[in-house]
Amino acid sequence: MSVVTPFAPACPFPIQDYPQVLMAHGGGGKLMHDLIGKMIVPAFANDLLDAQHDATVFAIGAQRLAFTTDSFVVRPLVFPGGDVGSLAVHGTVNDLAMAGARPLYLSAAFIIEEGLPMETLWKVTSSMQAAARAAGVQIITGDTKVVDKGKGDRLFINTAGIGIVEHSLNLGPASVQPGDVILVSGDLGRHGMAVMAVREGLEFESQIESDSAPLAGAVAALISAGLELHCLRDITRGGLTSVLNEIAEAGGHTLAIEELRVPVREDVRAACEILGFDPLQVACEGRFAAFLPVQDAEMALQILRERPECPGAVVIGRVTDQPGSQVLLRSAIGVQRILDMPSGEQLPRIC
Amino acid sequence: MCLAIPGKIASLTGDDPITRTGKIDFGGVLKEASLAYVPEANVGDYVIVHAGFALSRVDEEEANKIFGYLREMQELSELDDPGETAPAGPSGPPGL
Amino acid sequence: MKFIDEYRNAGQARQLAGELARITTKPWTLMEVCGGQTHAIIKFGIDTLLPDKITLIHGPGCPVCVTSLELIEKALEIASRKDVIFCSFGDMLRVPGNRRDLLAVKAAGGDVRMLYSPLDALKIAEQNPAREVVFFAVGFETTAPATAMTVYQADRRGLKNFSLLVSHVLVPPAMEAILSAPETRVQAFLAAGHVCAIMGYEEYIPLSARYRVPIVVTGFEPLDILHGILMCVRQLEDGRAEVENQYQRSVRREGNLPAQQILKEVFQVVPRKWRGVGEILRSGLGLSVAYQAYDAEQKFGLAGLRVEESPECQSGQVLQGKLRPNECPAFGKRCTPEHPLGATMVSSEGACAAYFRYRREPQPQPSAVAST
Predict the structure, then answer these.
(1) How far apart are CA C107 and CA C110, in angstroms?
(2) Is B18 on the interface with C (CB under 8 A)?
């Protein structure tokens, strides 16, 4: 039973169930959504936050801006195709891109564990600079803290980003409509499996590299072609399944996708099979889903497929007019089932 | 239980059957596995791998039998009803 | 992927389902023993392809699910110790004990490591001579050879800081327990393909004869499962009760002899408590006399610890096929994948979790859905 005092609101999150924060609360699945939705967002309550997009769009005078922040805690720090630094830059650039904003400036705050090799810090920092340059942004402010050995898991990076919104689209789940198609910008799961490939206890050899990449250019190309984009969402932790469930719930629509249309590279799929992972739940770091009217789909795919960071962009399903806010998946053998929000990070299984 | 995945032996290491290991190729992903339980397996063979151990060789001839059987079934059904397409699955609500 | 994708063909799945519908004239209840088969059935929606007359009950084929509360509590106790590196398969990490799971122990500072293979625990033991390395040996006969070889090698290398917390369980005694229960509804079994790859399937012959049930050794892909069901139903319709092998590409009648040899050397058959079911005699594997030095329960003085199961969780009834997950009063309310009461909800193989995650509502009407 929670005790309510006049000046301290009772915690609406069921802390009796979870007296301590667990890893799963950061896993991108239901537990994390509950933590954010039931404790954090209500505590900060304001209209701008309630929209709960990747980046929040607000206006200063006549100019619309987008603002976002993200923290990067990946382990190991360096993985095939990137490191925590490039990940941080791409992640924040992409959050801004999903609002259709042109990313301009980033901040970078480091929390460094005592004992981290200086060479690692240099590698990460250089990587951030290279990623920033390639994405057309500048890192203009930051902070550095060092914590005791054993408390920092070596290196955490927080980045915040500001961009300008130069279009008049209202990108978000509320704009999604029945009949819209759902497309993904490229094959899924490379990042998650690239990290697994070098994770202690699970290592395997492969050509899989993280798909970590900036997406602002791809989005800008779609916008400047005059396409009527309804919603964009980058696919990160929790994979495609998480994104689709979030949008279905936030927009109040039932979505239907075809498993055989969802692009997954053979080696990524093989890595998933070995560990018992569902590729639809594996993290990406350079892929997005787009919801747009069917008549704009062809052009969108043409534009994206010309870009190296959007290999094999394809339509995977559509927004139905059925009541409810579920995600339906037609499996490889042709049977339809519900694709539920994942409930925490996937763990390799023997079963 | 028993998530075991078929892969092709790409290379072998060691002579002692108990400690012999192989690099197994699963669709482009390579992972090492103990071959202690498949002493007869060689490079090029397919094995199913569970928890880092190859448990059994996959017999390709046996593997294809079901497809022969399905082909026969298809031919038989076409004989019964020439012009009919593949038999439709059962319709209706799920059995569970 | 070769030997996987060919067995996921939609047209051929429907073909098998069509043949099944053609030959089924009476209602039949089948059980698939293996959690991996349950996972595939629900993930691909295989059960919706079956004729209404066929009922599939999901059996206790999840070694993660059936690991007794007592052993989980022992694992948690050992993993909490300062000098221990506790190694486990990933899916055991979230199985709840009375109040917490191994992930919670990790959160509190325990050195808990997730491994793909028990052999990696040996490497860890060699790299950390001053610490005790314990591997949580969970699994059916499929996994026992892996842990057996690990201990065998530990012994050959004279490792003193390595031990196993053994929780291995055997499938045939569980099948017998289900068949011998008076209210049993099971008329045929899909036997676990990979278990039989190790053990062969000769031991199922007396079981099939004594209880007059068809037993078909079955693989894990959609075509395998549909084919296995077809073979069972054919027998049932014909009034036969035999052991057949659907999974011929990976299973031989005699099984894997080198693996059986190492199992005999390293393990012995012991009584085993199954979570939610109780003790089944001669249903587990424990370390043999020669390998007792590698038994973690003894090393850490926990052999005498007794823990009783919680009364609210009905996973036992679900595991025996007596209760469907959504018939349990706690299902979806006090018991969900985020907040599981028992292992059948935790493990993605568990019948309750599979049912929750992939549950089918009444089929939606096809409307604006892309046909492609």
Answers:
(1) 7
(2) yes
Q: What is the mean pLDDT of residues C269-294?
A: 91
Cα–Cα distance measured from residue B32 to residue B87, given in angstroms and rounded to the nearest whole number? 43
Chain B residues whose beta carbon lies within 8 Å of the beta carbon of residue C64: 1
pLDDT digits (tens, 9 = 90+) for A105-159: 999 999 999 989 889 999 999 999 999 999 999 999 999 999 988 765 689 999 9
Distance from CA of B39 to the nearest CA of A (A): 22
Cβ-contact C58, C354 below 8 angstroms? yes
Q: Nearest Cα to A318, choosing from A289, A288, A287?
A: A289
- Here the ipTM equals 0.89
- Residue A308 has phi, psi (to 5 degrees) of -65, -25
- Which residue in the block uniquely carries the two structure tokens 């400690």? B19
Q: Which residues pair with C226 in a beta bridge?
A: none
Q: Are B73 and C33 in contact (CB under 8 A)?
A: no
In order, the DSSP letters of C204-226 are HHHHHHHHT--EEEE-SSHHHHH
Is B19 in the C-facing interface, judged by CB distances under 8 Å?
yes
CB contact under 8 A, B2 and C194: yes
- Residue A252: CB atoms within 10 A of its CB come to 13
Helix, strand, coil shares of chain C, percent, nearest 5, are: 45, 15, 40
Query: Cα–Cα distances in Å, from C9 out to A333, B84, C4, C41?
Result: 6, 20, 10, 14
**Residue C137: Cβ-neighbour burial (10 angstroms; 0-12, 13-18, 19+):** buried
Residue C63: name the closest of C217, C245, C272, C267 by CA. Answer: C272
Minimal-distance CA residue of chain C relative to A21: C107
Residues 6+ apart with CB under 8 A from C335: C313, C328, C341, C342, C345, C352
What is the number of alpha carbons within 13 Å of residue B61 lying toward its C-beta? 0
Asked if C158 contacts C126 with a C-beta cutoff of 8 angstroms, the reply is no
| DSSP letter string, B15-78 | SSTTT-EEEEEETTEEEEEE-TT-TT--TT-EEEEETTEEEEE--HHHHHHHHHHHHHHHHHHH
Crossing angle of helices A190-197/A266-275, nearest 10°? 60
Token pair in block for residue B7 = 């892969």
Q: What pLDDT digit, counting tens, does each position of C109-146 carry?
A: 899 999 999 999 999 999 999 999 999 999 999 999 99
- The answer to whether A324 and A250 are in contact (CB under 8 A) is no
- Reported confidence tier of residue A3, pLDDT bands at 50, 70, 90: very low
Mean pLDDT across the stretch C33-62? 88
Average pLDDT, chain A: 90
Å from B58 to nearest chain C CA? Answer: 5
Cα distances (Å, whole numbers) of residue C250 to A154, C6, C63: 45, 15, 21
Contact A288, A184 (CB under 8 A): yes
pLDDT per residue as tens digits for the range B20-30: 999 999 999 99
Residues in chain A with CB shorter than 8 Å from the CB of C106 are 23
Q: Which helix (H) or strand (E) holds A29?
A: none
Q: Do B52 and C117 touch (CB under 8 A)?
A: yes
Nearest to A179 among C8, C108, C368 (CB): C368
Interface of A with C in 330-349 (CB under 8 A): 331-338, 340, 343-344, 347-349
Q: Are C227 and B66 in contact (CB < 8 Å)?
A: yes
Measured between CB atoms, does B94 come within 8 Å of chain A?
Answer: no
DSSP annotation of C40: H
Q: Tokens 């591997």 identify what position?
A: C135
Sequence letter at residue A26:
G
pTM for the full predicted model? 0.89
For tokens 């497929």, what's the residue?
A305
Is B29–A270 a contact, with Cβ atoms under 8 angstroms apart? Answer: yes
| Closest-CA residue of chain A to B51 | A350
